[in-house]
Amino acid sequence: MPNAQTYEYLSPSLKKTEYGTRLTNSENTFLRNNVETRWSKSYAKKNKSLVTSANYSWGSGTNISDWNTTGYNGEGILLSGNPELVDIKGANKNGQGVFQMDYVNPINDSTKIEMGVRSFWSDRDQTYFYSPFDYNSNSYVLSNQFSQDNTITESINAAYITYSGKLKNQISFQGGLRFEQSQMTGKTQLGGTSDFGYSYPKGNTKDLLRSLFPALYLSKNLNANTKLGLNFSRKVQRPNFRQLMPGIQSNDKQNITIGNPYLQPEFINLAELNLNKVFGQNNWLSTLYLSNETNTIKPLVQSSDTDPTVLVTTYVNGTNELTYGLDNTLRLTFSKNLDIMLNANVFKFNVTVDTFTNVGSAANAKASISYKLPSNYTIQLNGAYEGNRPIPQGNRQGIAFMDLALKKSLFNNAANITFSVSDIFNSRKDITIYNQPTYLQESMRRRETRYFRVTVQIPFGKADATLFRKSNKRPEAQVQPDFMGS
């Protein structure tokens, strides 16, 4: 069924100068395969272990679309060259592997050393052929300017060591250090486009030091039901290939996106003070946090040099983004059937990108209700609200959405069938307003529209949780069970 989207352009005096409708027909396919293996060595010493795991996954996908855009001027007269027809054919083949080795050596009952290495690599062949209809030749003609044909390789290699134990006065600690090296290379096959990628660290002393990521986690039991925690950590966020790819990525003629091949990773320094209190079957977790992002990756929107009515979005490394706030999560259990989770997060921030600086505050809220019905049925309702949030050049409007799932357990909970609805009211719209002296734009995008899904889960054998072990040993708060599969 075609997806219809309307648009309109207004003059500075808010007079309608152009409007129209775009009909989109899309068809997507994908195939994914995965194999994994694990080897472990046990020692005579209790809890001492060496575990090695590896997995490789591969697959392919296609994305075929037809666009039909019909535009009119302010007087309702069909624009020249309309309807604008575009044929899009996209495809990808990809593979990725992960190798990990973890070594644990307890020193005594309360102290241990852990160390390990982890390597991730991937390769991806991706094509996106954009062919508008040419009325002169009466055929679709490939546009190299809006098309992509890339081979992308990425690797991330890391080594870590942690030391954990207990001090006096019921204080526990865990300290660690991780070193990471990463790179991405994109090779283009189309004329008129260029290669892209990054490599980090580059070999100089400053980059080598910035590739070290320390972490320290402290906790103290105030009483049998209350725990206080203090955490410090440093993390990295790497640019993805769409942010790096220098070719034009466009969904409409007035808004185009061009990646930045010179983009570098951003770094996040995080401090948290949390209080976890258990009362009966209920739990309250309150976290006061401060986050400082340096070299932060942000979108930058500017008018085109050749046509001021066209907005060009690219990505840049901004100066920093400082965020601080308070997050509260309350989990309530009523009898054996009803579980409720409530979350509220309020925060303030200051972000600087290029010559733009914006400050503001925002609030988010979440709620989840899970109820066990007779005959092994369980129903779950999730809702969320994300408040208005300023961005460097404008504002991202708030959104509210809700998901629903119904699960039926079979064979004494050995298998289950789940029916779920994502975004019940189809309200999950990302609306962004850019308000600058030379332009004003309001745009709406969706990551996905409302959909229905049926999932059948039948386990074979016994799951081994150590296969999914992570190097980051930071203790996590108990999470609300979520069988919606999102």
Written description of the protein model:
This protein has helices at residues 205-210, 241-244; strands at 3-10, 16-42, 49-73, 84-106, 112-134, 139-140, 148-167, 171-188, 196-200, 212-223, 226-237, 248-252, 255-258, 266-279, 282-294, 297-303, 311-317, 320-334, 338-353, 356-373, 377-386, 389-391, 394-396, 399-410, 415-422, 430-436, 439-445, 451-457. The protein has a domain at 143-468. The chain contains 2 helices and 28 strands. With 486 residues, it is an all-beta fold. The protein has a 20-stranded antiparallel sheet that branches. The protein is 2% helix and 68% strand.
Summarize this, please?
The chain has 486 residues and is mainly beta. Helices cover 2% and strands 68% of the residues.
